């Protein structure tokens, strides 16, 4: 195992701990501008390469979690309707966390199931 491999690790979903795929362009909505994806546990995620667009990236992840329903996404309440998670210091170049010089953030949203 190389030095870089020991210090870094692949990104994992903060909710279920599964490895996630690299964020990719999201084609579901013409207003989506950030790369994203979905975990098999149901969490949607989006990548902010600058770590400065948190609000816009989080909103896109919420809309993705709501399958494109912008109205529903804007009326959700944290803790009541959804949980959020983050993976910081992510490098899209290496698809690793804690890579040297990495400062991107992946934002996760997972809707709570209705009881």
Low-confidence runs of at least 5 consecutive residues? none
**What is the gyration radius calculated from CA atoms?**
14 Å
How many β strands by DSSP? 5
**N-to-C SSE string, H for helix and E for strand:** HEEHHEEE
Biggest sheet descriptor: 5 strands, antiparallel
**Strand order, biggest sheet?**
1-2-5-3-4
Q: What global shape is seen?
A: globular
Structural class: alpha+beta
Helix share bin:
10-25%
End-to-end Cα distance, whole Å, is: 46 Å
Overview of this protein structure:
The protein has helices spanning 3-7, 54-65, 70-74; strands at 36-38, 44-48, 82-91, 96-97, 104-111. The longest helix is centred in the middle third of the chain and has 12 residues, at 54-65. The termini are far apart. It has one domain. A hairpin with a 5-residue loop joins strand 1 (36-38) and strand 2. It is globular and about 40 Å long. A five-stranded antiparallel beta sheet has the order 1-2-5-3-4. The protein is α+β, with helices and mostly antiparallel strands and 115 residues long. Helix content is 19%, strand content 24%.
């Amino acid at each position: 195992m190389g030095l870089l491999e020991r210090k870094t690790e692949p990104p994992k979903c903060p909710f279920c701990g599964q490895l996630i795929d690299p964020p990719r362009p999201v084609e579901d909505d013409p207003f989506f501008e950030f790369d994203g994806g979905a975990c098999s546990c149901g969490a949607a995620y989006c990548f902010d390469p600058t770590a400065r667009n948190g609000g816009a990236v989080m909103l896109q992840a919420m809309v993705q979690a709501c399958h494109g329903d912008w109205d529903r996404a804007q009326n959700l309440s944290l803790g009541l309707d959804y949980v959020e998670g983050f993976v910081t210091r992510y490098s899209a170049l290496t698809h690793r966390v804690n890579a040297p010089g990495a400062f991107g953030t992946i934002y996760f949203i997972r809707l709570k199931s209705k009881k």
